[in-house]
Design a protein that fits this description.
Chain lengths: 254, 403
């Protein structure tokens, strides 16, 4: 369903001190595969290359090298078709606050090629499932962070995507809202969707993910079921694995 | 293309929720222009009537009392004031009097001897009251000269017509409508350029950098709509806003046209009366041609704003970056009002300003198809270049994802 083969991505970064450009390798040869009905947890510290990887999967960025396929479509050449089959939700995505949830879902439904009647029906269903049905016609300027995030989730899932990418979905959310999201991820898994979750909440990842990959310095480490990962590393928790990898990474740089 | 329409629809739906912006963009000019120009016209009328109603303050040095009695007899127009006791130039500048008149001591003898009396008038040409005083004095002296000449002719037993070998009958051939058209031809492009760029700049920075700052641009990019169509949709929305802003301002100018061209202002509420004023001087055909020549100009502005806006991280940064553009538009607008520009061939090759010149020619009944098509061609080419750059910019990862 989602397949990355030896993906590389680098950026030019301007060094303000020396006034020179330097090349930063954000992603270095990542390969992974996520099957339908599977939740894949992509973990790693800030700046490790997680968000860049997800943006490339969503067809928002193009890999410099390697290939990415979503539902059999090449993200490099078929970016629009990929986004029509994929839900992408990131932390830097916000709602149009002047709209009501119903208005936002209607217009984004149209943008994703969903028939207006279907978009309306699915929108109402998603808002009900997320506990926002009573707020469907309320302007979102007064919404809490959690409520806005729920509308964003509904927006992302409106076109019934086969693949789902959530980048740090529980950041800034209270425990109850976070639980609603986790339950939703489990439902999506049961519906046969391929899900990639990128998170810093390691216990949550351990709980819901079928497989976990940890990115350090643009490279993928692990890529195994949580228990197998713990066993292979002789660790008791993902936190411990994380610290081990951080140590190895620092040693490699030194 | 459907994606572009949807993006445009989204932009308009969003704008429709912002009533304050709608008010300031479309309703405010309709209130502001008639009020502003009406007020200016009223103030001008009041100044005029006050100036005409009060006598000019004149200091007269006339040892032989030749002109003093005549001036005193016309108390409505002249008020004799004492010597200000200081430098006359300074006294005139300080408005202590409006005019100073020096009549030679020999004036009475010169009059008797039928010689020319040479009087000297000091006045300040830069002051309306002083100029009015000179004009009144000149009129009075002309009338007095006629009386004296007639008396001399009578004394010499010569016919009165001897001093008037010719007489002129004035018939004004000026076309009042054409005068109005010429004036509007100078004013309208200036106002229209600014009126178009204002909303395009304001909304354009919100649609680009504002979306990025609010975190909604990423949602838009994550849909299946291609980026080129997102750029096109925003371009169409901005263009429509610019045109609507322009239409609103042209309508407001129409309401204010009577006041602007120095006629009694129509009451702000008398829309039917006022709205006919622009149509009196500009036919629907002229307005249509004006609209068409402004279309590529609006596209130049829109694509420029999009290109700059997409590159900015925040709405404030975009507004700051676009401000020099506003300055350029104002300067171009002021420049386009300069007299004599129509005689410069090169001006018809300068983008934006060539459209202003074409409108000026249209209103002045000197329409030139060559200049008109040149303006459309040059501005369309520039708009195409900017649109290409805007679309390419929206496709650049380093621009879209810079932090």
């Amino acid at each position: 369903m989602i397949q990355l083969r030896d993906v590389h991505k680098s950026f030019d970064v301007r060094d303000r001190k020396t006034r020179t450009k330097k090349r930063v390798d954000a992603v270095q040869g990542i390969s992974l595969q996520v099957q339908p009905g599977e939740i894949y947890g992509l973990l790693g510290p800030n700046g490790a290359g997680k968000t860049t990887s997800l943006r490339m999967i969503a067809g928002l960025m193009k890999p410099d090298q390697g290939s990415i396929e979503v539902c059999g479509l090449d993200t490099r050449t078929q970016g629009e078709e990929v986004r029509g089959r994929l839900a992408y939700l990131a932390t830097d995505m916000q709602v149009y606050e002047r709209f009501t949830p119903r208005e936002q879902l209607r217009i984004f439904g149209e943008m994703q090629g969903v028939e207006p009647a279907t978009a309306e029906r699915r929108g109402v269903h998603l808002l009900e499932r997320l506990g926002l049905a009573d707020f469907a016609d309320v302007k979102m300027t007064t919404f809490s962070t959690g409520q806005k995030q729920k509308v964003n989730i509904a927006r992302a899932l409106l076109h019934d995507p086969k693949a789902v990418i959530f980048d740090e979905p529980t950041t800034g959310l209270d425990v109850l809202t976070a639980k609603t999201e986790l339950d939703l991820l489990k439902i999506m898994k049961s519906e046969g969707r391929a899900v990639i979750v990128c998170t810093h909440a390691l216990p949550m990842a351990e709980e819901i993910c079928d497989r976990i990959g940890i990115i350090f310095d643009g490279k993928l480490h692990g890529d195994a079921p949580p228990r197998e990962l713990l066993r292979s590393r002789g660790a008791r928790s993902l936190d411990e694995v994380f610290f081990q990898l951080a140590g190895e990474s620092e040693a490699a740089i030194a | 293309m459907r994606g572009a329409w949807l993006v445009m629809k989204k932009e308009f739906l969003e704008l429709s929720k912002d009533r304050k912006t709608l008010f300031f963009m479309f309703v405010m000019p309709l209130i502001l222009y008639p009020a502003l120009f009406g007020m200016m016209s009223k103030m001008h009328e009041r100044d005029e009537s006050q100036r005409k109603g009060k006598p000019s303050r004149i200091h007269v040095v006339d040892p032989s009392s030749t002109l003093i009695p005549i001036l005193q007899a016309d108390a409505k127009d002249f008020q004799l004031v004492p010597d200000p006791g200081e430098d006359m130039q300074k006294a005139l500048r300080d408005k202590k009097l409006d005019l100073s008149l020096e009549v030679p001591a020999s004036a009475a003898d010169d009059l008797k001897a039928q010689r020319t009396i040479k009087v000297t008038a000091f006045y300040n040409k830069s002051e309306d009251d002083s100029t009015e005083a000179f004009s009144r004095l000149d009129e009075m002296l002309k009338a007095q000269r006629d009386i004296w000449v007639k008396a001399r002719l009578q004394e010499a037993k010569a016919p009165a017509d001897l001093a008037a070998p010719t007489a002129i009958v004035e018939r004004d051939a000026s076309d009042e409508t054409l005068e109005k058209q010429k004036l509007l031809g100078i004013l309208v492009p200036y106002i229209v350029l600014i009126a178009m760029f204002g909303p395009i700049m304001g909304q354009g920075s919100g649609m680009t950098a504002g979306e990025r700052e609010r975190g909604t641009l990423m949602s838009l990019l994550s849909t299946r709509i291609p980026r080129s169509q997102i750029a096109l949709g925003k371009l169409m929305a901005l263009f429509a806003l610019g045109v609507l802003g322009m239409a609103s301002n042209v309508l407001a100018i129409s309401f204010s046209a009577n006041s602007m061209i120095g006629h009694p202002a129509a009451p702000a509420g008398a829309a039917a009366q006022a709205s006919s004023s622009l149509l009196q001087v500009a036919s629907p055909g002229t307005l249509g041609l004006m609209f068409l020549v402004l279309v590529p100009v609006a596209l130049v502005m829109v694509s420029f704003v999009l290109t700059v806006g997409i590159r900015a991280k925040t709405q404030r940064e975009a507004a700051t970056a676009l401000m020099p553009g506003m300055f350029v538009i104002v300067v171009l607008g002021v420049f386009s009002m300069s007299p004599g520009l129509e005689n410069m061939t090169v001006i018809h090759f300068v983008p934006i300003i060539n459209a202003s010149m074409s409108i000026r020619e249209m209103f002045g009944q000197q329409f030139n198809w060559g200049h008109y098509l040149l303006a459309i061609g040059i501005n369309s080419a520039l708009a195409a270049i900017f649109t290409y750059v805007a679309a390419k910019t929206l496709d650049r990862e380093d621009v879209l994802f810079k932090s």
